[in-house]
Amino acid sequence: MGSYRVEKSLNNNVLIATYHGDEVILIGKGIGFSKKNGDIIDTDEVEKVYELKTFQDQQRYRTLMDIGDDEVMKVILEVVDKIRDLIDEEVSDTLLLSLTDHILFAIKRYEDNIFISNPFSNETEALYPREYSAAYIAVSMLNKQLNIKLPETEVGFIALHIHSSISKQSIRDMNLMTEVVSKAIQIIEYDLKIQVDKNSIIYTRFVRHISFAVQRVIANDSAPEQRNLENLLKVQYPICYNVAIKIVKMMQSLLNKPVYESELVYLTMHIQQFNTEASDV
């Protein structure tokens, strides 16, 4: 079991402490009440622990604590705690560091009237609906408790941080995923001269397919070849097949990896669904 040594009390319910030489953030009802630096906390008083394992992470969090005042840091901890309750899956402790970093600078941008667009919000929501929902609640909490008005674009950014902490994927890879989806939709809309309904089931299915396709490409994996079906689709839906070819070339360019021709079959079928939906309107 052991015990924790208090380094700093953020408020009555949150402490910065050390445990066997490692810096941790402790959460517990009344745990910080009248505590001073050097005091000892028994583990049975602690409800939740966030562990920053590397020296770099510890130093980064200390730097962030100097940037944000105690009230802001307290609310961010509450937000991270809420996210962990909402996501029914193991969330890495590094979420505390990445979100603290992101939120502090999001608040600074808000105070300085600097607005950053998020062109992939729709794609992020379609790819990670659970994380997007939790991020929406997180932004609402921040705005209410800190009396600020962070823009809705922050929901998409925070959703990516949440998914990264679950999947262990880098933010770069996830941004690449959303960019592939966005460019694929742009190609479809331009070539078919249609407007894709991003609230439709067809769109959601397409986004999921692209997501799996990108993961296969990154992993150097492939879907089973279906030559007969590919030849049939090529003849029956030539426009959609050509659009699929353009999407594959775009994927190869962005991912800097070959995309197997077997993807053309599945892409063509999804693209044809968009075409049919547009014709029925």
Please tell me about this protein's structure.
- The protein is built from eleven helices and five strands.
- The mean pLDDT is 85.
- It is of the alpha+beta class and 281 residues long.
- It has three domains: 51 residues, Transcription Regulation, Sacy, Chain A; 115 residues, Orthogonal Bundle (PTS-regulatory domain, PRD); 110 residues, PTS-regulatory domain, PRD (Orthogonal Bundle).
- It starts with a strand and ends with a helix.
- β2 and β3 form a beta hairpin.
Radius of gyration: 23 Å
| Total beta-strand segments | 5
The chain-level mean pLDDT equals 85
Distance between the termini: 65 Å
Count of DSSP helices? 11
Architecture of the largest domain in CATH?
A: Orthogonal Bundle
Q: Helical content, roughly?
A: 55-70%
Q: How many structurally independent domains?
A: 3
| Coarse morphology | elongated
CATH class of the largest domain: Mainly Alpha
- By CATH's scheme, which homologous superfamily of the largest domain applies? PRD domain
Q: Which band does the percent of strand residues land in?
A: 5-15%
State the CATH topology of the largest domain.
Answer: PTS-regulatory domain, PRD
What class would the helix/strand composition place it in? alpha+beta
What's the SSE pattern? EEEEEHHHHHHHHHHH
Largest β sheet strand count, sense and barrel closure: 5 strands, antiparallel
Uncertain parts = none
Protein name: Transcription antiterminator
GO biological process, one term: regulation of DNA-templated transcription
Keywords: Repeat
GO molecular function, one term: RNA binding
